[in-house]
Amino acid sequence: MEMDWGRTQSPYPDPEQAQPNKKRGGEQDGGPDGGPSATMPPLTAADAFLVLEFVAGNRLLPHSLFSGLLAALPSVSPRTSTRLRKAVALRALEAALSGSDADGSGELPRKARDVLDDPGVAAFFPDHLAVVRDDVAALRRLVDAEWAGLPPSALELEADRIAGAGALDTWANADQDTRKILRLLVGESTEREILGKLGEGPSKAPQVDEAANAPGTSGANEDGRAQQDDEANLGRGKGEGNHAQEDCARHQQEPVERTTDARIPEKPVPSAAIKGKEQATSSHVTGQAAPDHNKSHPVTGFKPSLMERKPSAIVYEWDDSGDSDSERPPRKRQLPTYERKMRPPPGVPHKTRKKWTEMQEKTLIEGVENYGKGNWKEIKIAYPDVFQDRSTVDMKDKFRNMGRH
DNA sequence: TTAGGGATAAGG
DNA sequence: CCTTATCCCTAA
């Protein structure tokens, strides 16, 4: 599946490793060359995937930007995202078509032909290709239609999950720790809106008093957050079609009894202390400082929401100069009207067991064949769409279970 | 992060 | 009940 990526040479061969064996090399050197500055954590391949997949499929973003990102970001395999592969094909086609209509002959320029002859590209237009073969105008219409039909990016799906159409489910199923994170992402006003629709008051004063104490003991509680993004943050993809069971987001990072009761006491206990189920009776827990990764805002007690605009933000316009037909003004994502169906019975931890689909099982087997048993993280990254709502532990357990037959 | 033990929801 | 698939906990 070779593809013409434009001027940048394809960095694609694979996410940095093809060997099915253990290799725990340093993920990346925070090297001085082009790498992220010291103030930013390095981008993982998974992050790069999210960025590229979003940018590639947005027609308004020029190809120069896309190829620049392609060169700058860690390499990502396009195989697993229809949107990414299709967008790349469309960009290649557009590049080949650009400025080629001058002769008005309607003839397909050779460059465009070359692109269409790429089986990796042709695969996306199985039905229409024959019709379009020699007709530039028809090909352009096809390209337009395909752009319009591109599936949403994982980032957009995730945004919908936490603040859009899926917000109610997501929040209803989130435990307190997860909600804390959601609040940071979404902002307190949106949080109120969501909780209001859920019929829960805003969660009790999210005290962040820890900022004050945290004596010596230094880095003892530094981790435990980093991994959080992997399992809990990716929303389901392709879910739109079947809301049958797919739409109960679950977050399992921290063991916590979920309650719908709005006034759950804060959980100012180091996670290690929570493991037992008796924290309620432990008399001195309140003195502990909760490990918190957030620098609390002096006034609000919270880091400003990531959704809120920063004063330092700068806007670059793509001077597209042309069609402003679908000029969409920045608008808030619409929350669906509240339906009472999702209210879980109070006190009951409502976790939905998710059956493994046949496709997930087959993909898991394929992943083990390609990457080796035990490299669950790599497999998950290799098939982000398939395993979006499966943790690496889920995958390990599933494979173990499948082996027993 | 992973492997393995154990708990528990689901379904006979 | 018993079995099975899924989920959770913890050591390393």
Written account of the structure:
- This protein is an all-alpha fold.
- It has a domain at 358-403: Arc Repressor Mutant, subunit A.
- The chain contains 16 helices and no strands.
- Helix 3 packs antiparallel against helix 4 (110-117).
- The longest helix has 16 residues, at 82-97.
- The protein is globular.
- The chain starts with 44 loop residues before the first helix and ends with a helix.
- The structure holds a DNA duplex (12 and 12 nucleotides).
- Keywords: DNA-binding.
- Residues 348-403 form the Myb-like domain.
- It holds the Pfam family Myb_DNA-binding.
Supply database-style keywords.
405 residues; mainly alpha; DNA-binding; Arc Repressor Mutant, subunit A
What proportion strand? under 5%
Number of strands: 0
Based on secondary structure, the structural category is: mainly alpha
CATH architecture of the domain at 358-403: Orthogonal Bundle
| Major beta-sheet overview | none
Give the CA-CA distance, first to last residue. 35 Å
* Secondary-structure element order, N to C: HHHHHHHHHHHHHHHH
Q: Output the radius of gyration.
A: 24 Å
Q: What is the mean pLDDT? A: 63
